[in-house]
Amino acid sequence: MTLTCTDAIAQCPGKLSKQGPWHCLTLLALAAVAHADCSNNAWTDDYSEDRCYLSGPDAVVACNKKGSECGMRMSSNFRVGTGLHSMSIKAAPGSGVASTFYLSNHGGVLDPIKPRVEMEFAIMGNSAGAGSTNIWTDLWTGVADEHSKWITVPFDVTAGFHTYSFEISDTSLAWLVDGVTYRKEDLAAFHDVVTAIRSSALQEFASVWGQDSEKVRGGKLQGFSSALGSLDTNSNQFPVHASFQRGRRLTATAAEYFYP
After folding, report:
1. What 3 state SS string does the chain have?
2. What does the pLDDT look like over 59-76, one tens digit per residue?
3. pTM of the full predicted structure?
4. What is the sign, positive or negative, of the torsion defined by CA atoms of 47, 220, 240, 1?
């Protein structure tokens, strides 16, 4: 939650506090900090909940200049299978910061030993331009077997909200942005993916994380780290923010979404 000094003072006239308005202001400020998180009945903050707050339907995540102090992760309290699974995102701007939306059957953990199924959008502020943005998409199968591909959308992903979706059936997986399919994979060769889908074993995740000279992110995709860039060269005023609208379909066929 957010609370400005003006708002707090308006809520704390001196007559309501024997110790004066500044005592009340302090209590309100402390309460605001204590509730600065994005957990609710549908979502749980996995770590660094102090870097997330709710503003209407938006879960707003902060990234500080240092990689170890950038972002947080949240996970759904529900699991999904076939259908259209979407998140509206306004990505964090500039070099070194990624805003992600992904589905995983293994707790969202990057595990080089145990098998997992995971599908992802990684939206890099460094790749955003006024006319287009390159977005990294991924599918993990087996034991750390990565199937990555760049897609290009015709807008600046940091300038406003856009809807990122996984369209999943028993036979195919598609990555959509604003209802347009940019990548589609046949799942005939990925038996573990089909099993995860049919058993509705996929949990939803949203996160923001950063890379600087001390914390470098890797990836099998050639040029991933260089494309992400570094927070050290991000010229925006910090903290920078990404906003997530955590939408879920009401039914398998409904066009409407609600935002828990």
Report:
1. CCCCHHHHHHHCCHHHCCCCHHHHHHHHHHHHHHCCCCCCCCEEEEECHHHEEEECCEEEEEECCCHHHECCEEEEEEEECCEEEEEEEECCCCCCEEEEEEEECCCCCCCCCCCCCEEEEEEEHHHECCCCEEEEEEEEECCCEEEEEEEEECCCCCCCCEEEEEEECCCEEEEEECCEEEEEEECCCCHHHHHHHHCCCEEEEEEEEECECCECCCCCCCCHHHHHCCHHHCCCCCCEEEEEECCEECCCCCCCEECC
2. 999 999 998 999 999 999
3. 0.82
4. negative
Maximum Cα–Cα distance across the chain: 71
- When the pLDDT of each residue in the chain is averaged and rounded to a whole number, the result is 84
Highest-pLDDT range among 21-25, 48-52, 114-118: 48-52
User: What's the Cα-to-Cα distance from 190 to each of 14, 58, 172, rounded to whole Å?
Assistant: 66, 35, 10
